[in-house]
């Protein structure tokens, strides 16, 4: 297939493109390489993709409708991963979240309608579950108790996708990602922050007094779910993509310490606004309909990240 992937310089986007190219798909990557986080890391990902057979990169913005139209011309699928991610950045930049995550999503899905593209796969988030305390979280659970602007953005994307499917019969699949980690990961995520602090002899800022649990999902497993969604191309679906295991945050920290070969100094801090104490995905639907089977647990995934971090930064 010929596939447009937005957010091509991003963490999940980069890994997804690698797998698409490996299996012989043609990929048009679109990204504006914003400074939301260190753009040199994004450029490094793009450098690894540069010159690979079947890959074309367009440096452009999803807020520019003409650029979106040009990038989408002649594609069989759109995988929309471009977004401002994370809960905390939105407190200082709410206008950017509305522009990129809502208006940008509209540009993508409306161009899919206009060009009659045969399928849209887009990134949602576990954040849509908001204040729900029921675990594991199922796709059938209510998602109307939003506690972050980011979660609200992603819920809006799901509603817009549902409406466009209803009105125009566009095949749409939304993927609710659960705490994705791995090599070339985002610098604002806990694994990167903790590893960076530990290897530079700074204390770890641990929120929620360390009494948090997460469904940590290795990036290769997420990519497998994205590719399966692209291939199945159901008329309208939502899937949780997680590991399906709940891990204690402090066990995550212990594995980072073990991988780095040193013990961390720790600062225990209260919960941050918009954050949740626990997450866990019910992945039974993805298993049944996508053949989704996450393979990497944190005992294997965390050392892989630390090994990449040391190599990338020459430590």
Characterization of the model:
The protein is α/β, with parallel strands linked by helices and about 325 residues long. The chain has a single domain (about 1-245, about 255-310), classed as Rossmann fold, CATH 3.40.50. It is built from 10 helices and 13 strands. The strands form 4 sheets. A 7-stranded parallel beta sheet has the order 3-2-1-4-5-6-11, sandwiched between helices. Helix 4 packs parallel to helix 5. The chain is globular. The model has no long low-confidence stretch (mean pLDDT about 95).
Describe this protein with a few key phrases.
315 residues, single chain, two-stranded parallel sheet, 10 helices, Rossmann fold, seven-stranded parallel β-sheet
